Amino acid sequence: MKKYLMIMMILVASTLLLMACGGENDESEASNTESTSDQTAADDSDIESESDNENQEASANFPEEVIHDADADPVELEDQMGLEIGETGYVITQSEDLPLAVTLNSVERTQDLGAETKDGDEFYLVGNFTFENLGDSSVEVKKPDAASGSDESVILDDELTQGDLLGVGTWYLDEKNNIDSDNPTNSISLEPGGEENHKIAISMRDGADEYIIFFGLYTSNNRDYQNKAAWTFQSDQVDEG
User: Fold this and answer.
1) How far apart are CA 138 and CA 191, in angstroms?
2) Neighbouring C-beta atoms of residue 165, cutoff 10 Å
3) DSSP string covering 159-171
4) pLDDT attached to residue 51
5) pTM as predicted
6) What keyword terms does UniProt attach to this protein (predicted)?
7) Can you tell me the distance from the alpha carbon of 233 to that of 38, in angstroms, rounded to the nearest whole number?
């Protein structure tokens, strides 16, 4: 009888001990699960916060009125049509999401660029631009194109084809309006925070009473910039070279 009672007591004690250990494991697993969940949530929050901070920093590079969606990644800008000579437009490059500020300072008309000469109705519109790299990476500046002032709506709706253009950006020029011999690749690149003035010759096939010079042409499913910046001006605002 005593032996039987002893066996029962051992079984009861073992059961209680197993239950106690199981409870501790459950609490430990619950604690670990909760800790992992909290850490994951914290990591997600840090990533979201970091993304928000990057968007805020990017948005700070642009005037509020040109921002279409500050929460997008990258920030989305409005198309800026109808800018005047002397005003600044803002674009974001298509391939690298880099921000660029562009000011059209003046426009000149000429048929002669050193050895390059136009005849008849053809000529060059020479835009004097200031470019500022607003990002933290080097950015290549693409040349603008030109159209008649009546083409604003088709430019905005991406319905203007390469063949419809009144003029195509062709050359970067030096201070004497000659083709820049130091730039054989016919392109320029700005370092982060860099600001430079450059003249760009747009090869025109005909004249108009009103012109549009713009960045952001969309044609054949390609574009250089995610949005458009366009300057509209009258022919009497163009200097004769």
Assistant:
1) 4
2) 22
3) ---GGG-SEEEEE
4) 43
5) 0.77
6) Signal
7) 59
